[in-house]
């Protein structure tokens, strides 16, 4: 039982504790010194610390630079055993990342964790309950064991240090923050990312070492349409490596065998790896994406064209992967709020609406709900942290602690390019492999399926304004929108013809007929002479196609919703005619405002009956309206499909 725990007990309980069970921590042997040095890099830190220790042993030294390589080696006595199979550089093992055994990086990660924990507790809670004496003793024991090459003892002591910091944080913040490591990809960085996956350095375990950790620190990958097309069109060997990197293996490796510690017995001959020891594998990779390329702007395209582009991008991304794509995201451009229901309906468990190229799309809260009802979906809206910027990690723990205090789902979204990341970022990853003190790393798909569910609704995201906002691009934007609408109009005409007569649609597709020919064939199929009709196809709804008036006009509307358009016909047409909203005489003709149903047609003109089959004239005379108003309207207000009173007339 730690002595610090016994001292906090009441007097009668403290007296009843068996003193033999109390762990009395004695101060560190020898003289303690506080050394402050200014460094420019992590390797420079080790060299200057070694020189400082050497200077303390040699009071005659005047400066660090006078020690040279000999002073650096002075911190490592010659009678101490060397770590087996470990290259030396200035008295320290090389700074080589390792996923299997303890190394210098773990001490840096522990220092960063200690610092962040103390900043978190003292800044937000103004106190600390860390047993500093126990922590310092175990830290020194870990350092001595590591320098002596006793990796097993060093690993156990390091675990005690990380556990002490985890208990310190849990005392004030019981929930574990979520950490997301996101790697951004472009077609030009695919090879470099695959290279980092295939050349991850690993160190074999020797007989006096144990794996330093078993906590996963998964990486996540953003794959948009451009990356998917580049992978699909690239070499088959690279495509297969990319697919293998995205494979998910949920099977946990067997526990490594603990080497026999009997003196004089080498459990692993030649310092090799035990036969039943599984080879360390890189962390699994989660992925998100499915968004169109970054230069695609939803504002410049019609709804139909945007829907087709989204479906095409999602299909292209899913084809290059192995596992299901359950999280939607884009590298640039963002996601507009009106597209959230469509994305949710496509089967995505979550979305990341952040525009990483322009730095937009994030919210004050890290994880929120977007959409409503059945189209509700979780969204990661945390402000991205530049993993290459050391200053971004100065107050990481306080940022997460403040989110916990506000009742939010504390999440740190750390973003970088392949092979990127500053020292502090790698400290966070390495510390998270020892304990959950700083937080837990998530695969992005598990973050939405197994992570804490938000209960706050966020504001609808807005797509990043494209370069079309500038005056120079307005013409290009309008031209592209016009082309999309014209193409959609031609497709609608084919679909309209299929509703009237499928043979007309098949003939148009086979012969490549334009919309004018298709419309004429449809009119003839409906029984209207081609030469006496003015046609509408939904998109051209401003003026008739010909300046000459026709006696009877056929208006076809191959779109939705219902349309109301103006047309001029020769002759007199009653305003009570079917489909006529209003009519006004104009010379020898009549200007009509005609209602055309969606995906339907209307015929107007002098030869067309006043009403449809069985319909009555739609308008009541002024005398009838006045009489009904004076008498209180005792008559019926419903006639056929029309409701009317002294205030309004409703046609159903």
Write the layout of secondary structure elements.
Layout: H1 3-7, H2 11-16, H3 42-57, H4 68-74, E1 88-89, E2 92-93, H5 104-124, H6 132-147, H7 151-172, E3 178-184, H8 190-198, E4 219-223, H9 225-233, H10 236-245, E5 285-290, H11 303-320, E6 327-329, H12 340-345, E7 350-352, E8 367-370, E9 377-380, E10 385-386, H13 396-405, E11 411-416, H14 423-434, E12 440-441, H15 444-449, H16 474-500, H17 502-511, H18 515-525, E13 553-557, E14 563-570, E15 580-586, E16 589-596, E17 600-604, H19 622-631, E18 638-639, E19 642-644, E20 649-651
Parallel strand pairs: 3-4, 3-11, 3-12, 4-5, 5-6, 6-7, 7-9, 10-11
Antiparallel strand pairs: 1-2, 8-9, 13-17, 14-16, 15-16, 18-19, 19-20
Helix pairs in contact: 3-4, 5-7, 5-13, 5-14, 6-7, 9-11, 16-17, 16-18
GO molecular function, one term: hydrolase activity
Keywords: Hydrolase
Biased composition (Polar residues): 64-79
Q: What does this 3D model show about the protein?
A:
With 652 residues, the chain is an alpha/beta fold. Among the domains are: 1-32, no CATH class; 177-250 and 283-421 and 440-464, 7-stranded beta/alpha barrel (Alpha-Beta Barrel); 474-613, no CATH class; 620-652, no CATH class. Helix content is 35%, strand content 13%. It has helices at residues 3-7, 11-16, 42-57, 68-74, 104-124, 132-147, 151-172, 190-198, 225-233, 236-245, 303-320, 340-345, 396-405, 423-434, 444-449, 474-500, 502-511, 515-525, 622-631; strands at residues 88-89, 92-93, 178-184, 219-223, 285-290, 327-329, 350-352, 367-370, 377-380, 385-386, 411-416, 440-441, 553-557, 563-570, 580-586, 589-596, 600-604, 638-639, 642-644, 649-651. The strands form five sheets. Strands 3, 4, 5, 6, 7, 8, 9, 10, 11 and 12 form a ten-stranded mixed β-sheet that branches. It has a three-stranded antiparallel β-sheet with strand order 14-16-15, with no helix packed on it. Strand 18 and strand 19 form a beta hairpin. The model is unreliable at 62-98, 201-209, 253-282 and 532-548 (pLDDT under 50).
